[in-house]
Write a structure and sequence with these properties.
The protein is α/β, with parallel strands linked by helices and about 375 residues long. The protein folds into two domains: about 190 residues, Response regulator (Rossmann fold); about 150 residues, Rossmann fold (3-Layer(aba) Sandwich), CATH 3.40.50. The protein is built from twelve helices and 15 strands. A seven-stranded mixed beta sheet has the order 7-6-8-9-10-14-15, sandwiched between helices. Strands 2-1-3-4-5 form a five-stranded parallel beta sheet, sandwiched between helices. Strands 11-12-13 form a three-stranded antiparallel beta sheet. α1 runs parallel beside α11, α6 crosses α7 and α11 packs across α12. It is globular and about 65 Å long. About 50% of the residues are buried.
Length: about 375
C-alpha cells in the first residue's frame, strides 16, 4: 500500500545570532521525521520543508506564507524567539494552519493557531525564583536581550521579587545578538546583587557568561555558590563555546535535561544514539522539537488526516508519553502541562538535575493563579 506524503515546514534560523539553537531544533525535528518515515505501520510519511530566516524576524512571516501557500504545509514546526512567533501568528490565523511552538516564552498569549509546547512563566520563572530567592537573596540584577522575551520576563521577575519583599537592583537590556557586555559586568560589580537573572539569547548569553567568569576570578563575592547567574532559557548549546570555568555554576530551569531519569528518556536516548552516536548529549531545543513532530504524527495517525481542525481536536483529547514526560494540551489555552526541572551547570557544559516538580504543572499563561506572598528563607544549604 502506498503511503500519503504530508509536507510539514521546519521554520528555524540555522544561521544568524541564535543559529546554534535553531540547528539543535532542526536536528531534533529531523530525527522524529526519520522515525515516522521508518514506521511501516503508518499510512503516511512526512516531507520536511526547511526554511532558514537567518535570525531576521521580518522573514518569518514571508517564509511561513510560502510554506503554506506554495508547498502545501498545514503545520509549521518552528520559531525560537517570541518576536518571530508573533510575526508568524497572523499568517497561521489567516490560513487556519497550526504552529507548533516548542520554546520557553513569556506567556500572555493564547491562540487556536498555536500548540504551545514550551514552558510559560509559571512553568519556568516561578519555580526558578521559588528556589533562588530564599537561598541567595532578594536583590536580583536582570540582564536581557532587548525584545519581548526580555521585556516581559524582566517585568514578571520584578513583580515576583517585589511581591516577595525584595528589590530588583537594575534591569539592563542589550540588542539581540550583542556581545558588548563589559558595562553590565562593571555595574554588577558596583551594585553587588544577590544573583543575576539572565534573559539573554544566543551569542549574547555566551558573551555575558564569559565576561562574568572574569568577574568571578577577580572578586570572590561573585563565585558561583555566592552570586550565581540563573536563567529560564540557558541550555548546553549556549555553554558549548565557553571554557570550563565559564560554563560552571549556573542555575537554569527547563522541561528537559539529558540526564532525566525516566524510562521514556532512556529509550529516546538509546534510539538517538543509533543516529548520532553515544557521545551526544541532548538539549531542550532538540528534545522539544522532536516531541512536537512526534505529537503531530501521532495526532495525524489517530485523526486519519492532517487537517488542522481535526488535529486541534485530537491533540487536546489525549495524553502523550514523550521524552520530556507525559504531555497533555489544554483545549482552552492550547498550552501543555509540563514538568519543570532545575539544574546546575558543570565545567563540562552539562546540566546536573537537582529538582523536579512531582507532577506536570498546568500552564497558566496569564498568571491568573500565581502566588502573591512574602518568602521566608528556609534553613536550606546553598548549592555550591
Amino acid at each position: 500500500m502506498s503511503r500519503v506524503t504530508i509536507p510539514i515546514s521546519l521554520l528555524y534560523s540555522t544561521s544568524g545570532v541564535y543559529a546554534a539553537l535553531g540547528r539543535e531544533a532542526v536536528d531534533g525535528a529531523m530525527a522524529a521525521i526519520a522515525e515516522v518515515n521508518g514506521n511501516a505501520g503508518l499510512s503516511f510519511r512526512l516531507e520536511p520543508k526547511l526554511a532558514d530566516p537567518a535570525g531576521s524576524a521580518e522573514r518569518y512571516a514571508l517564509l511561513a506564507e510560502t510554506a503554506i501557500r506554495h508547498e502545501g504545509c498545514q503545520h509549521i514546526i518552528g520559531t525560537i524567539t517570541s518576536w518571530s512567533r508573533k510575526e508568524v501568528l497572523p499568517v497561521m490565523e489567516r490560513y487556519r494552519a497550526l504552529l507548533w511552538y516548542a520554546f520557553p516564552y513569556e506567556g500572555y498569549e493564547a491562540s487556536d493557531s498555536i500548540v504551545y509546547l514550551g514552558a510559560c512563566p509559571n512553568q519556568h520563572l516561578v519555580p526558578l525564583f521559588d528556589h533562588v530567592l530564599p537561598r541567595f537573596g532578594q536583590r536580583p540584577f536582570i540582564v536581557s536581550s532587548n525584545y519581548i522575551w526580555g521585556w516581559e520576563i524582566s517585568r514578571i521577575a520584578r513583580e515576583f521579587t517585589e511581591a516577595s519583599g525584595g528589590t530588583v537592583i537594575a534591569e539592563r537590556f542589550v540588542p539581540l545578538g550583542a556581545t558588548d557586555v563589559d558595562h553590565l559586568i562593571a555595574e554588577i560589580r558596583e551594585t553587588r546583587p544577590d544573583f543575576i537573572l539572565s534573559n539573554l539569547v544566543g551569542q549574547s548569553a555566551a558573551a555575558f557568561l564569559a565576561a562574568y567568569d572574569g568577574l568571578r576570578q577577580r572578586d570572590q563575592q561573585f563565585e558561583a555558590g555566592e552570586t550565581p547567574v540563573v536563567a529560564c532559557n540557558l541550555c548546553e548549546t549556549d555553554l558549548a563555546m565557553l571554557t570550563p570555568t565559564q560554563r560552571a555554576g549556573h542555575i537554569t530551569t527547563a522541561t528537559y535535561f539529558d540526564d532525566l531519569p525516566t524510562a521514556e528518556n532512556r529509550a529516546f536516548k538509546a534510539r538517538m544514539a543509533e543516529r548520532f552516536g553515544r557521545e551526544r548529549r541532548y538539549t531542550t531545543p532538540f528534545a522539544s522539537a522532536y516531541v512536537a513532530v512526534s505529537m503531530l504524527a501521532q495526532s495525524i495517525a489517530d485523526a486519519g488526516t492532517d487537517a488542522p481542525d481535526a488535529i486541534r481536536r485530537m491533540v487536546t483529547a489525549r495524553r502523550f508519553l514523550t521524552p520530556i514526560g507525559p504531555v497533555e494540551v489544554n483545549s482552552r489555552t492550547h498550552h501543555a502541562a509540563l514538568i519543570p526541572h532545575l539544574a546546575l551547570s558543570d565545567e563540562k557544559g552539562h546540566f546536573n538535575l537537582f529538582q523536579s516538580a512531582p507532577t506536570p504543572v498546568e500552564a497558566d499563561p496569564y498568571l491568573l493563579h500565581a502566588p502573591r506572598r512574602t518568602i521566608t528563607p528556609p534553613p536550606l544549604k546553598v548549592i555550591k
